[in-house]
Amino acid sequence: MTETETTTIIRDVPLSKLVPSAKNVRRTGREAGLEELAASIAAHGLLQSLSVRPVLDADGAETGKFSVTGGGRRLAALKLLAKRKQIAKIAPIPVIVNGGNEEEVSLAENVVREPLHPADQFEAFKRLADEHGFGAEEIAARFGVTPHVVRQRLRLGAVSPRLMQVYRDGGLTLDQLMAFAVSEDHARQEQVFDNLSWNKEPQIIRRMMTESHIRANDRRAVFVGVDAYRQAGGNVLIDLFSEDGGGYFKDGALLDRLALEKLEGIAAEVRAEGWKWAQAFLDFPHAHGLRRVYPQPVPLLLEDQARLDAVQAEYDALSLEYESAEELPDEVDAKFGALEAEIERLSERQQVYEADALARGGVFVVLNHDGAARIERGFIRPEDEAPAPEAAPETESEGYAVTEDGEIIENGNEGTEVTPDAEPEDEDADDGKPLSDVLVRDLTAHRTLGLRLALGEQPDIALIAVAHTLAVQTFYGYTEANVLDIRPSSAVLATHADGIEDTAAGKALADRHAAWAARMPRDVADLWGFIVGLDPASFMGLFAHCAALTVNAVKLPWERKPRTQETADKLASALGLDMTAHWSATVRSYLGRVTKAHILAAVREAVSDEAAERLSGLKKQAMAEAAEQLLAGTGWLPPVMRTPERDDRLAEEPQERDSQEGSDGEAVPVAAE
Questions:
Q1: Which pLDDT score, from 0 to 100, does residue 118 have?
Q2: What is the DSSP string of 264-293?
Q3: Where are the beta strands (DSSP E) in 523-614?
Q4: How far is Cα 292 from Cα 523, in angstroms, rounded to an integer?
Q5: Nearest Cα to 439, choosing from 400, 393, 395?
Q6: Spatial contact of 378 and 396, defined as CB atoms under 8 Å apart
Q7: What is the CA radius of gyration of the chain?
Q8: Of 132, 266, 387, 404, which has the most beta carbons under 10 Å away?
Q9: Nearest to residue 77, comparing CAs of 105, 111, 47?
Q10: How far apart are CA 151 and CA 535, in angstroms?
Q11: What integer is the mean pLDDT of 47-61?
């Protein structure tokens, strides 16, 4: 019999007598999917017999063993079941004993078969569930996959028949089909499909499918929680195909109401501290226009101070003991947490709001970007401000009056109307009349000119005057006490960058502001003396803080202010600003908000071309997450955040500038003592 002639015999052979054939053409992926195949054989039996040939000895006699030329993966799955004692090692296995070329038979078995189209697989899984009552766990066990994979296939099998046919015809990719399957609403699926533009990226489809829904990682969803939302009658749409396995809250109005109700509950608890009012908002009302007061430092009671000292000493000792430990034991970590909480609790008692502030002031309770409640205390409404001194009657003219004895009286002849520059009818009757408004304007204009001239010659007093003007408006919120016509403006950065107030830099700035606010005198009339009494370092610190709050280098799309950005670069250069201390490229801050090309460019610049090349084939979310790991610790920044080279002319050390000579040749002091 020639090699091209074949004979076929069907028989059973003990599993122990079957061995892999070296002539099997499958070289790649032999181990792939063995678990699934073994589970299927265990549930459904061996649906396709193995192709075998007798193993001969050196003399050409049969040895009783058979080499498997077709079905090497099935043999491996059977051996796996035998190893697990799910079948006997000598279990009879149906085989087809083939003659002919061994390698040709193996090739024919693997080449001529047509794999099942995924759409047919998805719909078949769906029928198993719908028509036979199989649950996801049972189907998973019978096919050797996870229940999650089964749920994905069931969801895909439930896609609109129209879209499924488009997928069969090659008009949709599997990723696009998965994006449509985020919802089981056939009408919505077909509506989105009909409205697709040239951009058919899966993320675009998913966004259109869920545009009226709220993602499960939204701050409102995190704050309310899925259980409370469902108890209130809300439905959650689970996205089986998202990278994070998240979902969507379908009723945004319900979610907003639940979040606001929970915030209002917290506000009621905070108001019990003694505040006049407490209001809850989803977003902080930055344009509230209210003055803010801060807690004042007070000494602790002796027993509280003793407790704080003891807890701090215990914390320091524990820190020293585990200073070199790479990982803390659970009980030690818990101990650190308890000590930190106690230190924070006792430290809060060192800052107390005055009774008047509590009686007049209120609290805003808002929702943070991370889904936690944020409590902002100490806001005074205009109607709750302390009554101002009664204003003089409008008929009273400002200025000075002189009596017949030559005595100067401020605002003389109260209640007497005076016509500016009117000549008195009787000179003797003019005694006690105030100076006219026009004359007062004339005289004070000359005084203003004198002040300008003198202030320009005394830089130390000019610094005090500017610091006073800035501080009045920064900490007291009004300008009536100003003599310098300077009005600082401070842009609210939270309106441009969500969550910026909760960053380490945002909290550091807020803490610095609160520390200065606590030191401010209660009455603005005492502010000048307070500033004059500061030591030089404290004075310059206050001056710098007030000036810093006016910095605005935000670039808005509708503004054309290129010189503002140029000046910002010069300021950053002079300060030696290093934004790597305050910001890093993460999925949330940057990588998840730019294109794949931008991600690869960042990795290429910060790491290497090879690293970027390794990421190039990934999907957007996976690429962003991998890039975050690669960029960590590299100090990479987007070009718009980078500081130009330091300009030594603008970056002189303060002590060098302090000793430079003024225009009159004398050294200019920092501030008056």
A1: 86
A2: HHHHHHHHTTT-SEEEE-SS--GGG--EE-
A3: none
A4: 14
A5: 400
A6: no
A7: 40
A8: 266
A9: 47
A10: 70
A11: 82
Terminal alpha carbon distance of the chain:
117
Using the structure block, give the residue that is written with the tokens 């966004």.
207
Half-sphere exposure of 156 (CA within 13 A, CB side): 28
8-111 classified as CATH 3.90.1530.30 = yes
Q: What is the DSSP letter of 661?
A: B
The band of 646, judged by pLDDT with boundaries at 50, 70 and 90, is: low
Alpha helices in 30-180 (DSSP H): 34-44, 72-83, 102-111, 118-132, 136-143, 147-157, 161-168, 174-180
Q: What is the pLDDT of residue 643?
A: 86
Burial of 189 (0-12, 13-18, 19+ CB in 10 A): buried
Quick: pLDDT tens for 452-467: 777 777 888 888 888 8
Considering only CA atoms, which of 600, 618, 619 is closest in space to residue 610? 600
User: Is the distance from CB of 670 to CB of 460 less than 8 angstroms?
Assistant: yes
Residue 3: C-alpha distances to residues 98, 102, 103, 105, 106 (Å): 11, 9, 11, 11, 14
Residue ranges of the chain that CATH labels 3.90.1530.30? 8-111
91's tokens: 């279990």
Name residue, tokens 């401020």. Answer: 410
CA distance 598 to 521: 51
Nearest residue to 263 via CA among 97, 418, 374, 410: 374
Which of the two residues, 193 and 11, has the higher pLDDT score? Answer: 193
Question: Could you give the CA distance from residue 295 to residue 276 in angstroms, rounded to a whole number?
Answer: 16
Q: Which residues is 20 bridged to in the sheet?
A: 68
**Window from 88-92, 138-142, 234-238, 560-564 with minimum mean pLDDT:** 560-564
Structure token digits, residue 27: 């070289």
Q: Which two tokens stand for residue 210?
A: 């869920």
Q: Encoding tokens for residue 317?
A: 């000792």
Determine whether 540 is exposed, middle or buried from the number of CB atoms within 10 Å of its CB (0-12, 13-18, 19+): middle
Q: What is the mean pLDDT of residues 243-255?
A: 79
The total of other beta-carbon atoms located within 10 Å of residue 461's CB is 14
How many of the other CB atoms lie within 10 Å of CB of 31? 8
> Rounded to an integer, what is the distance from CA 508 to the centroid of its chain?
18
Return the structure tokens found at 30: 């032999």
pTM of model > 0.85: no
Closest by CA position to 501, among listed 628, 372, 593: 372
